[in-house]
Structures are given as C-alpha cells and as structure tokens.
Amino acid sequence: MASKHIFGVFLFLLILFSAKTVLASPYWLKEGVYMTYIARASEPITPEDLLNASKTSKNGVLSIVYNYSNIPFVINIYGNGSVNFTIVSIDRGFARVRLTISGNYAIVRYYYLKNQKPGFDPFWDEDAVIDVREGPALLSSNYYMTEIVLKSIILEGEYLIELNTGDVYDLKGNYYGKTILWNDPTNPLEKNETLCFDSKGRPVRIADVMTSNTSILTYYKTFMPPAVLVKTTFGVEKVPPDLEAVGRNLMIYDGSSGILLSMLAFHVPDAKAAGFPMLFGFDEYMHKLSWESKKEGTMVSGGLVLYDTNANFIQPKKDTYSPSTSPLAYAYLVGIIAVVLLALRFFVRRGYHE
User: Fold this and answer.
1) Which of left, alpha, beta for 275 (phi over 0: left; psi -120 to 50: alpha)?
2) Which of 106, 210, 298, 303 supports an S-S bond with 153, CB 3.0-4.6 Å?
3) 169-176: long-range contacts at Cβ-Cβ below 8 A with a sequence spacing of 24 or more?
4) pTM here?
5) Distance between CA atoms of 268 and 237, rounded to whole angstroms?
6) Segment 113-149, tens digit of pLDDT
7) Residue 238 and residue 296: Cα distance in Å, rounded?
8) Residue 180 contacts residue 265 (beta carbons within 8 Å)
9) 41-93 pLDDT, tens digit each
10) 197 pairs with which residues across the strands?
11) How would you label 98-137 residue by residue, b for 16+ Cβ within 10 Å and e otherwise?
12) Which three-class secondary structure state does DSSP give residue 9?
C-alpha cells in the first residue's frame, strides 16, 4: 500500500510540473486591484434620443446579454459605458472577481411568447425609467417584447479565476475558459489554444498572436512597445429571443506587464462566468480618433479601452516579449473592427412593430 501511495504522489508531482500552466497570474495581481475599461459615445446622448427609432437602431457603445432570474435580457447602452473588474479576494489559489457594468442612457429588452410574460423583480432603478414600451417582436414573429428605457443602469456579477492556470469558473464551479484580463509575458497565449466555447459548445481558439513595435494609446496612458495582439477564431453566440450572431475577438496587451489594454471581444469568458453570456463594447470616440490620428508608431486602442487601474507595474525583474516590428498592426485592428461590426449588424435592430 505504501508503494502505491508513493507512486501516486510521484505521478501527481510529475503531472503538476510537466503540465503547461497557461496564463499564470501576473506579478501586479493583488487583492483590491481593479481595472476599468470604458466605451464612450462619439456624440452626447439625450433622453429624447432613446425615444427616436433611428438612434436606438444603432449599436450603442455596449451590447450585453444578461442572465437574470433564468431570463435572458438584451441591454444596450448608448451613452458612455464602463466595465470594471475588481479582485475582491484571493484565497487558496483562486481570485474572486467582481464584474460591474454601468452606463447612462440604456434600453433593456426581454422577449416572451404571447400571454406568457415572465414575472421577476426589476434589476434596474425604477427612478431611472424614462419609458416602457411593449409590442410584437419584429425579427421573431412568435415573440412579444418589452423595452425599458433608462437614464442609467448598473449590473454586477462575480466569478473565480484559478491563478495558476488562468481558468475561469462561475461561483458554482462551472468552467468557462481562460481569463482575458492578462497575457503572462513569461508564458504567453499560443496559437491553437482554446480560449473558451461559444453558445453551441464549440471551441473558440487563438488564431494568431502578433507582437508589434508600436505604442498603444489608452485613456489611462500610452503604453510603450512592445504590444501584443491576440486574435481568435470565429464563434456563434445566441441573441434573444432566437437569433445568432457570429464574431471573433481581438485583444491588445502590454508586452511588459501583460495587462489587457483593450478588447474588441465577442466572446468574453470572464463575463460569461459572471452571468453575461455576451458583452461587446465599442468605443465610438476612440474609433473616430483612430481615423484622425496620423502619429507614426502609435496605435489607438479599440473596443473597450483601459481607463483606470491601481495595478502596480513596478517590476523587480522585467520580462518582456521580444518586439518584432509589424507595420500592418493598425490595418489589422481596423479590419477586425469591420468584421465584428458586420457580424453584429442585426444585434440591436429595433425589435418591435410600432
């Protein structure tokens, strides 16, 4: 029995030290660290705009699917939107993370079959309600829809990250993939690795990892080279009531610290684990700036862009990617934006007959 026990311990240690520990936690990740990403509208939004069909048929800056009381809600934020990740605690090799999504001027939509309107306690502030509208859903003739027009909204969810592997779980222990909040410079993401799974259970893999000798402009600061661009394969996500949308991710990381600088992301394991099957952000202001910017050697971030963090990037021993100049990086970013927006073309089309 003793020999079997010793063999079992040896086998465990062999597996432990021979397995690849993908996305090991970065040196700056501590309890209390937060990272805030924002998406800004290119023009000011007013309450009257939300009552205008031509305004609310557009994407907005944040498009969200939120699971609440076993009901999928579609939420679009048209003013400025914010996505905050806060490390609430670190215990036994797991980080507990609180995801907070907030924004102004939003529309919440939910769908139901005729005479089967669901009952639930509202998750929005009743004082923020501008209007409530109901009618047949335009894109799905079997469904009716209710729209709640809001001045502002705040949503929250929590999930877990296993620090040795970067694996993401919900609070019930269900697995969702790898975190996209960092890309460990000492053990980076590699092509063909599985990042997560789409709504059909198919893997969304890393399609390409590109190192670029460019600076990255964010709201927080300009990060010096190298930058790391990670692209995924395409995947399908469900959009209530019975639609599907196709898209892929582009994440940009600081090559030195590994922190996520921006994400034009269609598949976000961190959000899925926190109760948001879909979270897509598009900063209209940065997109406009990217077309106007002519500064050589600098790339303007796209999607959801880093706005603030209290992470300490002072590193005793600096480990970085070896930079390789890539003049196509900017065109690469713009091309991905076009692909994702095309895939999302029906996501926020007005959903009811007036």
Assistant:
1) left
2) 106
3) 169/273, 170/273, 170/274, 170/275, 174/273, 176/269, 176/270, 176/272, 176/273
4) 0.85
5) 11
6) 988 999 999 999 999 999 999 988 877 778 999 999 9
7) 40
8) yes
9) 988 888 888 887 666 666 789 999 999 999 999 999 999 999 999 999 999 99
10) 203
11) bbbbbbbbbbbbbbbeeeeeeeeeeebeeebeeeeeeeeb
12) helix
Residue type, 147: E
Please give the Cα distance from 241 to 342 (Å, whole number).
Answer: 20
DSSP annotation of 25 reads: P
- Residues 195 and 270: their CA atoms lie apart, in Å, by 11
- The larger pLDDT score, comparing residue 338 to residue 206, is at 206
Q: Contact, 303 vs 248, CB < 8 A?
A: no
Looking up tokens 């303007």, which residue turns up? 300
Dig out the tokens for 189 from the structure: 């993401």
Percent of the chain's residues with pLDDT above 90: 64
Give the integer Cα–Cα distance in Å for 340 and 261: 18
Q: Where are the alpha helices (DSSP H) in 127-212?
A: none
Which element (helix H / strand E) includes 110?
Answer: strand 94-113
The answer, yes or no, to whether residue 14 has pLDDT greater than 50, is no
